[in-house]
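Progress report, Aim 2. The chain analyzed during this reporting quarter is listed below.
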Amino acid sequence: MSNFYYLYCLKDKHLAKFSLKGMDKKRVYTLSYKNIEAVLTEVNSKEFESQKVKAKLEKDLKWTEEKVRNHQAVIEEAMKTSTVIPLKFLTLYKTEEKVKKVLEEKYNEFRELLDKLRGKEEWGLKVYVVDKEKLAEAIKKGDEELIKMGKEITEKPEGVKYFFEKQIEEKVKEKLDEQLDGYIKEVFDILAPFSVEKPVINKVLPVELTGKNKETTLREMILNISYLISKEKVGEFQKTVERIHHNIYFPKGLWLEYSGPWPPYNFAQTKFQGSAERSKQVLQVLMEKGFYLYCIRPQTAKPIEVVKTISGEGKVYIISYNDIEAVVSEVDLNEFGSEEIQKKAEEDLNWIKEKAQIHEYVIEQVMRVGPNLISVIPMKFGTIFKTEESLKECLRKNYQQFKDSLEKLKGKQEWGVKIYLKENIFRKTIEDKNEAVLAKKKEIESLPKGMAFFTQKQIGEIVNQEKDKELDRITEEIYESLGQLAFSKNKSKLLEKDFTGMLEEMLLNAFYLIEESKLASFQKKVGELKEKYNSLGFKVEVSGPWPSYHFA
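Predicted structure tokens for the chain:
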């Protein structure tokens, strides 16, 4: 069997070994020349024969996506320990000798390029028009020349109105393009100083590749640009993009979005590399990854073992800052972007339910350290960071707040108590035993029979009044008596029957933060309340321990 050699990148020589598998789950290894090395995998030549690969690229998106992700993952692994020169997707050589020969012949070029890239990262910026039609309409209504042209149309004969309307449309398009060109130039001028090399303007991706189309609104990309930024300037670059997005361009109808760090495709053209445009485009469409945050926990040596993550695959891992840890997994932003989650919430509740259950499952696994529970700060469903750097910045900025919350939660557990009512049983109890109702019945017995209809109606009203009064009293008594054993307590929104799946109406949805030393007393008290009020139609349910959503 003949083999090819699949190249991922060139990098500084480093002792680190690759834990990842490469293409077709084969070993990733390096070939060295002096102080640089090529990262490669030996693959089956039949699998990567040119005609077969061409057919796969045209017809088998799943195959293409798998290979691109594998290509990208190996490069990202190399980036953790070295400066890299990324090679385009599907860079293949027939022999190791040819790879070594290129390393030797082009050593000076590769060495110079690696030195240039050291301490720098490639970051991308995309600018979209949020709603082009809305912007066009605003121009049409606010431009004096167009307003005048619109008035003149009303005076034209029907037969020629169409041609004047087309003239207005062309004029609107011309003015809108001028406006957008002005915005693009402004953005370029503001951000260009961050790049140590001339920013590279990439091909604008069509709507079907950006994932930005909506039923009524198209986010049309108007700028796709790459910057090579010194690592110490990345934070300032991100803040600047966020500031001008929120303060300047979003109010004008634009959406600015940065991504990275990317392997420096646009600033690392080599003999190996050729044109990186197609490879970069595929990677940007398929690999817009983010970091899904489940919870914050104190630093602990226990590894996290889960059978699935929010994306259905991959692993959960830790990003640390001082003595706290963020528990995360990687997600594809094409599926987990804020707009995509919002759309799912509106159209696919089963998807939301499944992902919310996984979110909860991972947090509960994180809480368990052997037989014990540790305190965590659970994040709400759908908390996602676009970059690891932005997540670390969040940990840094909010460190003291996280520390204080973890300290407050230490040695405590959140438990929930729900009360449901069997209406018919409780109403019968009120009718038969309530003093106000019994007094009214006694009064009725002494009245003429002709008054019975009206007095029965009065009894019904009194029953309703006494029922509501007793419900409030008993519910509050249960809530407060359990609260005496809690460090803190919290009433939450009552849930409808459709949500709970219960036949009975919910009266109380309470949460308690219980010190572990008082947990047995709390559970005993719940048992006593169940026994006391069960015969009256009250159904008391306790559940826990839960992640401390209501106290963190």
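The first helix runs from residue 50 to 59. The chain has a mean pLDDT of 80. These observations will guide the mutagenesis work planned for the next reporting period.
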